[in-house]
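Researcher: Here's the sequence for the chain we discussed earlier.
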Amino acid sequence: MKRYWKLMAISLIAILAIAVFYLQPVFTKDQYPAFTFKTVKGDPSELNDLTLNAGYTPVLIKTNESTFSYTQEPLTLTNRETHYENQQSYFEKLSANSSDPQLQSLQKEYKQFMRGKYLDSHNFFEDDIFLAYVAIDESSLHTSAKKAVFDIQILNKNSKETTSYAIDIPVTGAENYLSIQKVQIIDSALKIVTENNFLTDKLEEFHIYHLDLGNQKVTKEDVLSFESELSSGNQNNMVRMLTDNSQAAHVENELVFEAHYNAPFDEEKAAADPDYYPEYLGSEFCIYNLKTNTTHKLAVPAELNPENTMALIDGTTLYLYDLTDDAITVYAVSVNDVAKNTVYTLELPAGSSSNREWLDIVDAKLYLATPTKGSQTEKELTVYDLDSNTILYEGIIEKAKGSTQKSTDGLNIYDGIIN
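Model: Thanks. This is the structure I predict for it:
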């Protein structure tokens, strides 16, 4: 028996380690506070399809100039529960993007097809007939081969058959990386939108690749570079493609791109002035039609402050909005016909701050989360009906009764999903 004591000890340690790993969510369940939604007015059922992604900070460290923290615990909030990421079971952690309802649905319905996929909604497209997945293999991009490949799998829902393709991407060799922004099947043709970043000071480009799957090649490549008299050829600009987060994998004929231009970064001014920020030069929006392969630009309307304007898209409507101390101005324009536009002005709740934490618009409903003026963990949550210019719901997110009350912690809401 003595000969086996080391083996028994190692086995016991392994069993205890596995037990602790699996039971960790039980031990941490009460470590952080729960949050509730207190209704001030309106219909609480407006929150039934809302999931907020947030971060809880146990301790905020204050200095004379700013407030910051060293740790943040990710969590999701609904009007039913508070769920911290570190409370997930082992099997929940195996399912990436578990908070994305679209990917959850695809994983449940098409288990075999979804197995082994990189779970980002930008990589998928779904309609009544096809479920398509595209990834980029750029393992040879920085070698002498200077090669990148589209790895494509398409499931035919009717026949249940999956077809795979590997198609070379036309690259110049100066690319640093490529990232997929949109996958579309339009009139039976596959089109892939990527953001291409370069090793040089060249501004990022968005490429639209038109693929011939039968001959396994790219037949056409459209490039949106956003180089203009405002860009100054420097990297201190921001260009992004707006995506409809509520319907990430659907037919979308128009793509909307947003470009913000700033003056080149001045290191001498930055060293002399801690509040230095490069001068804002201007903004523009570009709408690209995937069916006609044409583009047209949209200027920021006069009703908005161009420097403070934010943008998002819902379906075929582009929303530009500007927050002041007591109101939100929203400019809605159809991406199919920019002549169709509407301006909305909404008053903020009296107790909220104009420092927006999260804002989204789905089906002409505007969801807004802002910090309250007297707390680092309380948030004002408001749902507006743009069409009627009324508040559908107004409430406060606060710590649940029984949770530890501290003046040093904080809550930050950074995203949300409306199912």
